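Subgroup meeting minutes
Present: P.N., E.W., G.H.
Scribe: E.W.

1. P.N. recapped why we're keeping a running log of single-chain structure predictions: easier to compare across weeks, and new members can see raw inputs and outputs side by side.
2. G.H. added today's entry (359 aa).
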Amino acid sequence: MESNFYRRDGKLVYIKQPEFSELKYVQTLWKDRETMDGIGGIYHFPEEKWKVFYHKMVMPSDGKNFYCLVYNLDEVPVGEVSFHGYDSAAKIARFNIKIQGKYRKRGYGREAIRLLLEYYFFEFGGNIMMEKAKQEFSNEFISSLGFEVIRKDKGEITYQISKETFKALSNNEKKNVCCILYPGVDLLEVSFTFELFNLINKFNGEEVFKLYVIGDDEVDLSNGMKIIPSHSYEAPIIPNIIIMPGGCGCLENNKISSYIDKFYKDSDYILATGHGIMTIAKCGIVKNHIIAALEEDRKQILNMSPSSKIAELSYVDTGKIITTVGGKSSIEGTLKIIDNILGNEKTKDLKEYLSIHKK
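Output recorded in log:
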């Protein structure tokens, strides 16, 4: 797996830039009558056209287009999602989504668009996404993603969503943040992340993030202190955000692995720091992912998850999974989650506060 193929994970699917050989699937997708019916009909995509398409849409790209295949959690390609025609002055682009006919009505399309919008708004820097369609989207589809109809003309409907609207959708529900404690856990890694969530609650004047400490009855920390978690692993709390902090002894605790296995799929994010990255590697959730890792842990991580790619970075964000080597990068990873949920404007006070206290 090449390190420069972008990937972003969701609960049902993930999107990833394809390798050149994977254009064979695109060829199959575009000639599938069930898939292409109603959107212009089948399109023949011979191999002699692959190179031009790949260079424009995938790599190196012309800077105006972005293309991914959509994969289900069994790593089977189920469709495509992209944006094209980006106007850098107006920061506007148009999107495309195709889910193969036999995989429709499973929620794949909605989540693939959400993942694309997260990349477009939060990483690429776009402000508005638009699309024209001959068929009207369902009200449920529109409301769940935040699109609005801005024009109906000559049988075509134009949809639009702004960055502000997309961010606002995440603010409607409180998020359960569950931090896992275990014997030997690094207290600094716990305090870094928890204090940031606690501060943003104070700055916002409301408890957006509900904080829980998950673990056994009493936990011995790496510095010799003891702490009592607020809830056990069996507590009926469904985490939106799982924090897996670093420390010694995390691999030996099977309760941690069972907890992550149980809740990872339905969570929105998992943040693993320091040695905690070994635990999520043990659980198998970083297979075929680009991750950060401490130098001393890399061999063991690759033994547990050979298809993972370790980047020479202190912090890696692949959408749902965020890995950091610890320290300052743990702060960056936590702020990334907060930004994705609340938006940069709402975290401005927090960042200014951190900037002041660094001096």
